[in-house]
Fold this protein.
Amino acid sequence: MDDNMHAPTVASGPTTTGGADRDPSKLTMTELMQEKERIEEELSALSSVLTSHGVNMNSSLTTFDDFPRADIDVAQIRTIRSKIILLRYDHKEVMKYLEKGIHDHFSNLQRAQSDTSSAGNTNGLNGTHSSLTGNTSSNAAILGPPFARVNSVAAASPADQAGLKTGDHIRSFGAINWINHERLTKVAESVQQNEGRTLIVKVLRQNGSDATELDLELVPRRDWGGRGLLGCHLVPL
């Protein structure tokens, strides 16, 4: 018998009072980011509850003869699953407006840069890095704010060989950025999926009162003599 027949009927709408009446289309970019973080934290907490019961979103809640299992709190698990489904929908909606806002913001910045360039006000870039002065500050803004900090780097590791240093702030890690890193879980997935491949890591490095943008080439690998594929520890900002 289909498990969904036992699923509870739950009214649509926000799952927590913190998100009540928060229409994503009416939120500012800052509020959208806060809502994104709130939803992800709640999803993580609810998933942990399922894990503590030894089940996930797809585990059967019935016995072979279609009776509710006696070894778990079936009612609680069904309720949590319903909340997760609603939260996933909320997250998708928030991401839609957040990505639209970012796209519009970047388009405006690029348009402003184009207008400035046509007026003859341009700045060159040296090699793979640039100081955050003049128009390069606009280039940095296009990347979005940093979302992670390098907490430690092991000697001779892939991270060390790429040039990462303790204290560096990560703006993007391959295709992962401040919008979609999901509390760094997507960074871990990207590392696992790109073992032996080059990932471009955009870094903001503070040098006293100055900051420098760096594009580093990082190749995740496991044969460097230490733990993990990177040899560094990242913490979310």
